[in-house]
Each structure stands twice: as C-alpha cells, then as structure tokens.
Amino acid sequence: MGNPEKRVSHDPIASLIRKENLASDEETRNLEDVACLVFLDGQFDDFEKKSDIDEDKMVEILRKTWGKMSEPGRQLALHMELSDRAKMLIGKALET
C-alpha cells in the first residue's frame, strides 16, 4: 500500500475531493466554487449543445450547480462573461 507517511500527507487532498465538511470548510467551499465556475466559464456552452440535453434538463443542472456554490461564488458567476444563452438559462434556473 505504500508509505503510510505519504498516505497521511494526501489525506487533506482526499478530503477535498470527497467534499468533506463542505458547509463548514472554507477551502472545500472554494474548491467547489472553482469547479462550478470552470464549468460555467469553459464547459457550459459545449455541454449545453449535447443532443440529449434539453432546456429543462439544462436548467435543472444549473440549479444544482448554483446550489453547490457559496454566495461569493454565485456573485462571481453573475459577473462572468457568459454567452447570452447561458445567461438566459441561469436566469430561468434562478426564477424557480
């Protein structure tokens, strides 16, 4: 299994990956915000164009994404340069 000291040194990383203490750990929340913002900024438009994802499904995905983010992460997302379609779908996700 390898050197136990090396495994211990990776425990904080594993904890971040598992999203442990998401509600109370700032570093974990920041990592989750980063993951969500990367999705919105760099992957959303291609993801949204997939043939098996209709508008309702995309709105639900955005609701879930929004729910994972902290308030500062949400504010960053609202000020990002996103496509008009992304902005429209985010608006729909936030309406309900």
Protein described:
The chain is mostly helical and 96 residues long. It has a domain at 29-95. Helices cover 74% and strands 0% of the residues. It contains five helices and no strands. It has helices spanning 4-17, 26-48, 55-68, 71-78, 84-95. The longest helix is centred in the middle third of the chain and has 23 residues, at 26-48. The chain is elongated.
Q: Please compute the radius of gyration using only Cα atoms.
A: 16 Å
Major β-sheet profile: none
Helix content: over 70%
Beta-strand proportion: under 5%
How many helices in DSSP terms? 5
Structural class: mainly alpha
Distance between the termini: 49 Å
The dominant shape is: elongated
What is the averaged pLDDT score?
Answer: 89
What is the element string, with H for helices and E for strands? HHHHH
Number of distinct beta strands: 0
Which stretches are low in confidence, meaning pLDDT under 50 for 5 or more residues running?
none
